[in-house]
């Protein structure tokens, strides 16, 4: 039993690494930033780094290969290629920055405004974007260059305006996907203005798509700027530019192929670096948003294996011992699930109960090898159907997943493929598990829908997931899970996304399936009402550890652990009208004195 004092030990919080450091710690990000920094510094200090005037000709040293005197050789006029490459980089990068600034401000600004405010704002901005995208971009760019007499600042600003349309469309879609989130609504209720909500809550969540789009556009801007110079519309000769150098190399391609290598490699590597940087930044930011909340214990550089040497219960359909799951941050491993073990008997429903972040879902996902990125099992053994499994070996769990161990997910729509009808998805599962012909698979799919009490199952078979309600989608998910006749059912808060009436119906379905088929059920929930309604036993978890495991009657009547008593007492239904709603810590303090 976990000591009482350890229940409320301080929560471990790790200081996040700066984004730039996280990028540098990834090999591709380090290479991309390294190349871009090298190009920028070389362009800034071109005069100091180059030993030759980039426009000075030496007709006695034309078309020379690399040597100690000229590290990258000379061109058709005897000019030093390295010197011209360094000085030409400044013009290219300046143009990229100008185009990127215009595209970023216009694209992100219009996209955020259209997605956040919608209605008239969305329609007006949408029309503007459509006009920009329908214009003949190349012709407009050439006209601008002609009118403004090869002014590259105006030309690259025009490129930014043209490119802002695609960026705005992507940003708008990203904002639309989060505009209705609860945290946005909560921010409005607290009185924050639209500008504050956009800056504090909207932009941080969509920074990933923005960075990816800007990096793609930066690579495109390098290509466009090079193309303009290649056509002779950029810096006039003999002023160096990467595009101009590529053009000069094309004239000598028959007798001096080397001339194309330095300038071509510089352009290609710079474009590649922008793309890699965008991908790496996107991955880093996605990890920061989706990383599991580390509410476990900091356990140093390594985590000791759990006490998984305890004997299994050979009568149980599933016996778990010593499951420990960790995540690693800043060189420190934090136990998200710590030495978890339990037994589930045939026909029994075991509830995993605890606060959000207590490790309930992770503990169940580990049984089928579906842990999220950034987490791993360091120890844990499972006896299932008479065979022992090492939970660190996820490959050994693949034959169990979806066959002998079924999974019902919290969000019903996320578990169904929107591109296929419900009937085709169920029939595919039936074919994978023994149904020979298409007719037999369809018959079994229809039978599965009828068993979960879906009215007019034949019509539902022809529908797509978006055409049914959330409750019906969850019934379809249950039907699909039960088709392979699993021996144990994992249900991860299957009623959270449903209204109260539908919740009761779904719980009845799970109870009926458990009793009728004789299978066991592991139910993940934080709802005591659900536990009392359907579970035979319950296991209380806190910060990844098991605090109490008891029959339902004993757990509700005589909870043995202080935390369990506090968890049961922190119930809004028992709070006095007009008083502050009780929390677990409030109840714990009132019952036992100040928490350690």
Automatic annotation (TrEMBL):
Main location: membrane
Transmembrane helix as UniProt keyword: yes
PROSITE patterns to which the protein is assigned, alphabetical: ABC_TM1, ABC_TRANSPORTER_1, ABC_TRANSPORTER_2
Record has Cell membrane as a keyword: yes
Assigned GO CC terms: plasma membrane
SUPFAM superfamilies, per database record: MetI-like, P-loop containing nucleoside triphosphate hydrolases
PANTHER family: DIPEPTIDE TRANSPORT ATP-BINDING PROTEIN DPPD, OLIGOPEPTIDE TRANSPORT ATP-BINDING PROTEIN APPD
Name of the molecule in the record: Dipeptide/oligopeptide/nickel ABC transporter ATP-binding protein
Species of origin: Haematobacter genomosp. 1
Taxonomic lineage from the root: Bacteria, Pseudomonadati, Pseudomonadota, Alphaproteobacteria, Rhodobacterales
């Amino acid at each position: 039993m976990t000591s009482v004092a350890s229940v409320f030990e301080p929560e471990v919080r790790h200081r996040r690494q700066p984004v730039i450091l996280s990028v540098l710690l990834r090999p591709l990000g380090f290479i991309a930033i390294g190349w871009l920094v090298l190009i920028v510094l070389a362009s800034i200090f071109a005069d100091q780094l180059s030993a030759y005037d980039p426009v000075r000709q030496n007709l006695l040293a034309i078309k020379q290969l690399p040597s100690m005197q000229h590290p990258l050789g000379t061109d058709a006029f005897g000019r030093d290629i390295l010197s011209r490459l360094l000085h030409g980089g400044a013009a290219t990068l300046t143009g990229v920055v100008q185009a990127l600034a215009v595209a970023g401000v216009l694209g992100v600004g219009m996209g955020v405004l259209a997605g956040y405010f919608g209605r008239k704002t969305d329609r007006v901005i949408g029309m503007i974007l459509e006009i920009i995208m329908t214009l003949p971009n190349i012709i407009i760019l050439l006209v601008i260059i002609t009118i403004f007499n090869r002014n590259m600042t105006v030309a690259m600003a025009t490129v930014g305006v043209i490119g802002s349309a695609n960026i705005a469309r992507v940003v708008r879609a990203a904002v639309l996907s989060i505009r209705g989130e609860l945290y946005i609504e909560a921010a409005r209720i607290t009185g924050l203005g639209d500008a504050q909500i956009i800056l504090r809550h909207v932009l941080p969540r969509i920074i990933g798509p923005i960075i990816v789009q800007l990096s793609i556009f930066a690579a495109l801007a390098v290509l466009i700027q090079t193309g303009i110079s290649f056509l002779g519309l950029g810096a006039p000769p003999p002023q160096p530019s990467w595009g101009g150098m590529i053009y000069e190399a094309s004239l000598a391609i028959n007798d001096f192929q080397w001339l194309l290598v330095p300038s071509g490699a510089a352009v290609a590597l710079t474009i590649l670096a922008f793309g890699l940087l965008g991908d790496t930044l996107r991955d880093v930011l996605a990890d920061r948003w989706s990383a599991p909340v580390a509410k476990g214990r900091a356990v140093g550089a390594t985590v000791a294996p759990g006490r998984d040497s305890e004997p299994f219960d050979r009568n149980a359909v599933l016996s778990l011992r010593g499951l420990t799951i960790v995540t690693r941050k800043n060189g420190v491993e934090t136990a998200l699930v710590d030495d978890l073990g339990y037994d589930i008997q045939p026909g029994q429903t075991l509830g995993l109960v605890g606060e959000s972040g207590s490790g309930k879902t992770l503990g169940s996902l580990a049984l089928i090898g579906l842990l999220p990125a950034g987490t791993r099992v360091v120890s844990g053994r499972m006896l299932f159907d008479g065979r022992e499994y090492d939970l660190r070996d996820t490959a050994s769990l693949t034959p169990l997943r979806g066959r002998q161990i079924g999974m019902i997910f919290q969000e019903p729509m996320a578990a169904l493929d929107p591109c296929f009808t419900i009937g085709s998805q169920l029939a595919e599962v039936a074919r994978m598990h023994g149904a020979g012909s298409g007719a037999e698979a369809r018959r079994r799919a229809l039978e599965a829908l009828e068993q979960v009490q879906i009215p007019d199952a034949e019509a539902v078979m022809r529908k797509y997931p978006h055409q049914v309600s959330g409750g019906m989608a969850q019934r379809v998910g249950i039907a699909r899970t039960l088709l392979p006749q699993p021996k144990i059912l994992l249900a991860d808060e299957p009623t959270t996304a449903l209204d109260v009436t539908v919740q009761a119906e779904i719980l009845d379905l799970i109870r009926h399936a458990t009793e009728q088929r004789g299978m066991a059920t592991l139910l993940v929930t934080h709802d005591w009402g659900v536990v009392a309604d359907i579970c035979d036993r319950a296991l209380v978890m806190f910060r990844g550890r098991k605090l109490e495991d008891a029959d339902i009657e004993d757990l509700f009547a005589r909870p043995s652990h202080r935390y369990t008593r506090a968890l049961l007492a922190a119930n809004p239904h028992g709070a006095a009208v007009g008083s502050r709603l009780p929390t677990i810590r409030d109840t714990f303090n009132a019952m036992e004195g100040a928490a350690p």
